[in-house]
Amino acid sequence: METTNFRIVSSDSSVAWTGRKVTGAHNGTIGIKEGNFILNEGKVKGGTIVIDTASIKILDITDPDTNTQFAGHLASDDFFSIEKFPTAAFDILSVKEVSDSIFYLEGNLTIKDITHTTGFEAALENHGNAISLTGKLVIDRTKYDIRFRSGNFFKDLGDTLIYNDFDLDFNITAEAFSEQSKN
């Protein structure tokens, strides 16, 4: 059996986020710091994705002052506490093959040093020495102590309520590497 390790190419990978509230939604991007996928006979068997929380960007707010203020709020303890927790990670624990190119990845998601098991479907394209993986992970932010304006914890929020679930859309490129090339 051939096992290949693929290292994530951060510059060719992206994660788009969407958070919703009663009056609309916000969206942006967040960078991947590092990670890898392990394939055996062309099938995903494991891996890790490490997110750089300090790289979060807001795309839908074009006013520079408002954008900076919102980015600061996302960086604060109300949301991601990026000074204390500069990374978040998804560690694959198990993989179920849905079809030849679709896999259900289940793993430990760690945000703000809080870990819960979750999963999502991912599509894999294998290009020999490179792979691309796309998928959407829906996260309940309250499980990770992100409670700001959550209806689970605050009453009478009206149209200031922020929904608990947010989406991360992954578009990842990874390249094969050998153990010798790591040195």
Automatic annotation (TrEMBL):
Pfam families for the chain: YceI (PF04264)
InterPro entries: Lipid/polyisoprenoid-bd_YceI, TTHA0802/YceI-like_sf
Domain Lipid/polyisoprenoid-binding YceI-like: 5-175
Record's protein name: Lipid-binding protein
Source organism of the structure: Flavobacterium limi
Gene: yceI
